[in-house]
Specification:
There is one protein chain. The protein has 350 residues and is of the alpha/beta class. The protein has a domain at 48-283: CinA-like (Maf protein, Alpha-Beta Complex). The protein has helices at 3-6, 29-38, 43-46, 48-73, 94-101, 118-125, 135-147, 201-204, 206-217, 222-226, 229-234, 245-273, 281-284, 299-305, and strands at residues 84-88, 109-114, 153-159, 178-188, 191-200, 335-338, 341-344. α4 crosses α5, α4 packs parallel to α12 and α9 packs antiparallel against α12 (245-273). The longest helix is centred in the C-terminal third of the chain and has 29 residues, at 245-273. It is globular, with a radius of gyration of 27 Å.
């Protein structure tokens, strides 16, 4: 284990503990060396969980501010109510989940598409550009959200939270932390406006810089490890060229949460500086219940999907009743059903 990686982890227990000093005023030389070597370590290497929690809190604050803005600007009687939908590659739903974690303004939350795979971006959103790590990809993703939903504001992200070190020809280890963000909305009934941004969280945020540097410094170089046949035999996992799971997981989660925060901040600024419209067709285009004339709305897939049939394993999978006999589990609830509604249960035992 590298010394830098060990800063993120608790010190391993040694087979033999250092001898206790005969004097309570003095530490043993072994422990003194351990303390001295770690005394001036960066705070984020000593308490990495604090850095990740801070990123999550900031993302939720950004979500709250966006929802508050949309709620304050809504004009319900006029039908001027914005709904947000997201298209997320590296975050795979985290941005929308962050919005949902804020427990109000539910009417402004439309839905999300977790388009992690390249094909998902093309099928669900109509993305055409080949290089998915570009401004154009972020623009096409955001545009695709609006064209394939009845949302009025779109947030899209595509980027590199955990590069594969050359597996993808567009994937570059030096691009760790690079994320493209697209935000789109309607200017009027016939015009979509879109704005794109690029961030490299490993460069533009000090906390991420230390974490990303740690990630880079502990990466195993495929070409170098291939020259050490003995090491490949003894440590097969090193030959893959991937970084260790602990560091990769922590760094990628930090980048994803920072992506959610910045994307939501950009969406708020986009709403504030543009007089966005809520087109009338967003209401009229909403399908009625049980309207199944076209079982597949994606024209690209209609050719092969329209003839498919669905068979249920459980006999009640098409049941539309909400009566699931919850009364059997009523002991778990603090209320009991009465003719007038619900009343709190009383404990008969004294």
């Amino acid at each position: 284990m590298s010394s830098k990686l060990s800063q993120l982890l608790p010190l391993p227990k040694k087979s033999t503990s250092p001898k206790k000093s005969t004097s309570s005023k003095h530490l043993s030389s072994e422990w003194k060396n351990v303390i001295d070597s770690n005394y001036f370590a960066p705070y984020d290497s000593l308490r990495p969980e604090d850095i990740l929690n801070d990123a999550r809190i900031k993302a939720h604050r950004a979500a709250f501010k966006l929802l508050k803005k949309l709620s304050n600007s809504a004009r319900w009687e006029e039908g001027y109510v914005h709904q947000v939908a997201t298209a997320e590659s590296l975050t795979a739903g985290l941005i929308f989940s962050t919005l949902v974690d804020v427990p109000f303004a539910g009417a402004h939350k439309y839905g999300c598409l977790g388009v992690y795979d390249t094909d998902a971006k093309r099928i669900f959103l109509g993305v055409k550009v080949e290089n998915l790590y570009t401004h154009r990809c972020a623009k096409e993703m955001a545009e695709g959200v609006l064209k394939n939903s009845n949302a009025s504001i779109a947030i899209a992200v595509s980027g590199n939270a955990m590069p594969n070190q050359g597996v993808d020809k567009f994937d570059d280890i030096a691009k760790l932390g690079e994320v493209f963000i697209g935000v789109a909305g309607y200017k009027d009934d016939n015009t979509i406006i879109c704005e794109t941004f690029v961030y490299n969280f490993c460069v533009e945020h000090s906390n991420a810089l230390n974490l990303c540097k740690l990630w880079h410094d502990t990466v195993v170089n495929k070409s170098d490890i291939a020259k050490i046949s003995e090491a490949k035999k003894r440590v097969p996992q090193l030959a893959s060229g991937f970084n260790d799971f602990i560091t990769t997981s922590f760094v990628s989660n930090y980048i994803r949460n920072k992506t959610a925060e910045i994307a939501l901040i950009k969406a708020l600024k986009f709403v504030e500086k543009n007089n966005l419209a809520v087109p009338k067709f967003l209401q009229s285009d909403r399908p009625q219940h049980e309207s199944r004339e076209n079982p597949c709305n994606n024209k690209l897939l209609q050719r092969t999907r329209t003839g498919l049939t669905t068979k249920c394993i459980n006999p009640n999978c098409s049941d539309t009743s909400r009566d699931n006999k919850i009364g059997k589990n009523s002991a778990l609830l603090p209320f009991k059903a009465t003719k007038g509604g619900y009343a709190r249960k009383t404990n008969s035992r004294r």
